[in-house]
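User: Is it possible to get a 3D structure for a protein together with its bound compound? The compound here is adenosine-5-diphosphoribose. I've pasted both below.
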Amino acid sequence: MARAKIALIGAGMIGGTLAHIAAREELGDVVLFDIFEGTAKGKALDLSEASPVFGKDSNLKGTNDYADIAGADVCIITAGFPRKPGMDRSELIGKNLGVIKQVAEGIKQYAPKAFVICITNPLDAMVWALQKFSGLQPRKVVGMAGVLDSARFRYFLADEFGCSVEDVHASVLGGHGDTMVPLVRYSTVNGVPLPDLIKMKWTTQERVDAIVERTRKGGGEIVGLLGNGSAFYAPAESAIEMAKSYLRDKKRILPCAVRLSGQIAGVRGLYVGAPAMIGARGVEKVMNIRLKADEREMFMNSVAAVEKIIADCQEMEPSLK
Ligand code: APR
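Assistant: Yes, that's possible. Here is the predicted structure of the complex:
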């Protein structure tokens, strides 16, 4: 059986980390694309030279020619610019919208059947624009944010309880920004929801509130620490989890930025984070979670933040109207 082909559009910090994980896990042949040909070729060669040591037969190629992504099964997009300390993700629109337009044209021409995972920020607007520019089926175009945001939430909770990260599950809804909605009542340790853990005196409401706030600002915390870029290990791991679910038809239910058609709070036509089943057909189902009044208010606040960024995109690029 032919190997899967994975095209990584953007060979920077996340792109290089994605290539490393994909090669080590032998997920398929990897094409690293970047406008800087040397960056893409250099990382592909470096990883190829590492492959005898980690003992996997990975075909890696670096390129700045979209023709090389032809027939890719999965495309993961990180092309663009990351935040600098003090910047909000929405401040990246001016630079990244043009990049996404070029990427969408490349994918439409050479890999129109691919499952496309966008990571470039501001995420929810960029994945929406990518789908519009490319005209690909919405179920084949998703954004990576929820797996990362819920991983941050899970890690902070595991740290709070001193337990294994494997036993903590957490759910995050809404846009990938400070308005995201970590769903406390659907977040569990060994199946026990957080509100019960508060009653059991494992933690307090105040500490959970602080963890929720830290989760919302998790990306900014890393940007502040790194000083010259944004998170890359956790975003790369998160996108690989989504890619694997597609390639292996695992039907994982993962929080992803998906185009809603009324499943949550009646929102339609927008990309925002929601739990989605990812299988061989792409997004196969979106969980129609019924929100409580306060959760709905937070979710709609997050949706409004995404709508505002989309309106800015439409102003810059009238073809998106
Ligand atoms: N086409 C292809 N590649 C491009 C283009 C373009 N038009 N413009 C920029 N790039 C490449 C850069 O050359 C760089 O190698 O995208 C890569 C981005 O890599 P980094 O700057 O290291 O950024 P990274 O940390 O990987 O984050 C990428 O993901 O999480 C988001 O906010 C983050 O938007 C940012 C993106």
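The first strand starts at residue 5 and ends at 9. The mean pLDDT is 96.
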